[in-house]
Amino acid sequence: MENKKNSDISIYIVMFIFVALFLAMMGYFAYYVQFSSPDDINNSYNPRQEKLAAKVIRGAILSSDRKPLACTELTPDGREIRRYPYGGIFAHVVGYSTKGRYGIESIANISLLTSNADISERISNEMADQKSIGDNIISTLDIELQKCAYETMGIYKGSIMVAEPKTGRILAMVSSPGFDPGTIDQQWDELNEMTTSPLMNRTTQGLYPPGSTFKMITLLEYFRENKNPEEYSFNCNGRFTAEDVTINCFHGSVHGKLDLKKSFAKSCNSSFANIGYGLKSNAFRSTAKDLLFNEELPIKLSHKMSSFTLEKSSDTEEKLHTAIGQGKTLVTPLHMNLITQAIANKGMLEKPCLIDRIENYKGVVIKQYHTEDEKRLMTSEEADFLTEYMEAVITEGTGSKLMSEDYYVAGKTGSAEYGQVKGDSHSWFTGFARDESGDKCIAVTVLVEGAGTGSDYAVPMAKRIFDCYYR
Amino acid sequence: MNNIIIELSKYFIILCIAFYALNGFIVFRYKTHEDQRGFYVMQNIFMVMIHAAGFAVLVLEGRDVSMVTFYCVTQLVIIAFVILYRVIYPASQPLIVNNMCMLLTISLVILARLSYSKCQKQFVIAAAGMVLALVIPFLMKFSHLVFMHLTWLWALAGVFVLGVVFVLGRATYGSKLSFTLKGITFQPSEAVKLLFVFFVAAMFAKSTTLKQIIITSVFAMAHIGILALSKDLGSALIFFVVYVFMLYVATRKLYWLLAGMILGAVSAVAGYRLFAHVRTRFIAWKDPFSVIDGQGYQITQSLFAIGTGGWFGMGLGQGTPNKIPVVEADFIFSAISEELGCLFGLCIILICISNFLMFLNIAIKQSDLFYRLVALGMAVIYGFQMFLTIGGVTKFIPLTGVTLPLVSYGGTSVLVTIIMFSVIQGIYCDNG
Ligand SMILES: [Zn+2]
What we know:
Oligomer: heterodimer
Radius of gyration of chain B: 21 Å
Largest sheet of chain A: 6 strands, mixed
Strand order of the largest sheet of chain B: 1-2-3
Shape of chain A: globular
CATH architecture of the domain at 211-356 and 374-470 in chain A: 3-Layer(aba) Sandwich
Helix content of chain A: 25-40%
Number of strands of chain A: 19
Low-confidence stretches of chain A: 1-6
Structural class of chain B: mainly alpha
Low-confidence stretches of chain B: none
CATH superfamily of the domain at 211-356 and 374-470 in chain A: DD-peptidase/beta-lactamase superfamily
Order of helices and strands of chain B: HHHHHHHEEEHHHHHHHHHH
Radius of gyration of chain A: 27 Å
Largest sheet of chain B: 3 strands, antiparallel
Mean pLDDT of chain B: 88
Helix content of chain B: over 70%
Strand content of chain B: under 5%
Number of strands of chain B: 3
Bound molecules: zinc ion
Largest interface: A-B, 39 and 51 residues
């Protein structure tokens, strides 16, 4: 009996299996609490965020060079006031935290309300019923560029977004009209009633017809279906007609004989309607899906999904209009900027990044965010092809005002007609610039509501941004 | 002043539980009870301090003043139990007594905070369980007689009870079968678990021929099948796992264990393909935030509680654990993590592990195969149930709707677990 017992290892095996399970579970639990939970709990479904505010003084949001964009000050009588030193310049992107939450104030709420100060300090604060000081968010925002974009937009309505394609870092994001987050409590009702929606971040939540900027996507689809773009030619007499549907060139232009590159550079509607007529709707839809149409964008800021409705059963009218960016297609300036970034980065979209790192109030880094590949939107061959064509827009087309000694631009202009009145149009530009070495690269997207043609309004604005950056 | 006490107690309670858990592992290094005695007494002191500090905080926060009386009564009952047990059964295993009382103490503190009325109900049942616990080790002497001779009766009884409940009972929260009698809800599957372990142990103690294994397996499958049909997946899984491990230890043939694992994997895939409620749980586990309005609501609220509490917790009474559905039962661990801290949660896991190891230790020492298998079966039920519930609420594994033994609210569950601990004590006292 004794002997049999000693030779029996079966219970030890049971013990081993279960202890391994328990240890794995404990490891997972500890890892979750330490590393994963901070992201999870910053969720509007979590009813516990208010509880934290009672224990911690909200941390500050800083620019990439550590200047405060939002910070909490104590009044002599002990009240906390949220200050926004730059007034309305960073309004939408930094956001607000008193009337609901918006912008970085919303996506980083838990971090701002979490104190990673020394443990001894936190405990002694709790004992004394004193609040600890929350962590600081160091954003990727660049004060000079943001100011420049804000001033450039001026009194116009619209949006400007600037980002680094190689890292996904967002350097500037402006929406106009705006508001002053410092006085939002007093003006809340008034702002809400205004028909111009000043509280909405047009960059992420404004849905606009893309106009001719969409020809980048039509061109990509053409390239995917036809591998010999040099052979394309078209004779523009100012209009294109197929099955009773007629598409006119903008402002009655007649472009004459065009190859594919000229069609794109001159933004010839007739030629692109012709191209669109020959495209396969199903394949076009899947290309649009590759480019994140009808999908959530990989960013935590609240945003709208762009829509692309063309499908196999669509009629010719929708098909032709879609090809030139009119139709039912709607995009956000953010989305247009992400597509541009992917083209600039050989087809790979980096994860958009608005927060560089989290530090405790003494400047010790708590969490550093790194560049991450988000999704390949197209092959690098396709990106090179689009880049070459977008360069032609500047050198021989509608974006000629962007010729510069200091940088090389590739981009696309657009005038998106909207509403019933003929001639009302949004002015678009989206593109990227590189310096001689190719190291400094930014993607800029400009949208001006109801202003007119892209080359007249959006392009000069983009030029001011590029000049500011490469100065 | 109150604030200082409430804040201090947060760290004090964590320190107490940490030292308690530590002592529970140190004792494994000493051979005799005499050498271990000092550590057990220390454990009792930490236990009393957590009990006292917990209720002190609740009273200072201005909850029901009658909690002072309630605290005194519960404290006295638990201390009396520890002393009586030692007097009646000098040869009993003190770590098991201590851990049982510690987990009951934690349960009382957190339930008093979540729902005072449920806490009082729970205490009445736990007190009744403690009385049983004083008798059961003595009765274990007759277990051989009762189970080895009337083996079939117990198997049929188990299948019968589950079958009756399947027909008559109703599902609460979509899974657990129960029926209500005079305001008290019974969950027969909890009780049948014990009968099942005795039955299987008796069958294999008699013989482990292939014929015997097949007969026993048929009965095991009958139990598991009824539970699976009544959508009580957690219980079905526990029965299955305990059967596979008992079969393996009885035969000492590794291929039974492997066969069981393969069968388990195949059934899991089949269950996923066949049943919508299985897929639902799987989706809620894979990406709960995508279905946060529906099936993912429970688990995301649980994760919010754990994450917001962090390592040190919000402090007892300072969080919002009641936002989690069925927090007193299936999600008690999340409530504890939120308010008492995740360090406290880790210590609970350690205490449960020390119970599990102690049960297996006792199983190893049994030369009698029946006792050996009973102790093993109890250990596996206990350990696996703990794994299912804590793993579930932390999203380590999909939710199965199982309670945390001794800590969760639930009369049947607490009663059955106390009986289980007592059975082990009985085996230990007889043949320690
Ligand atoms: Zn033309």
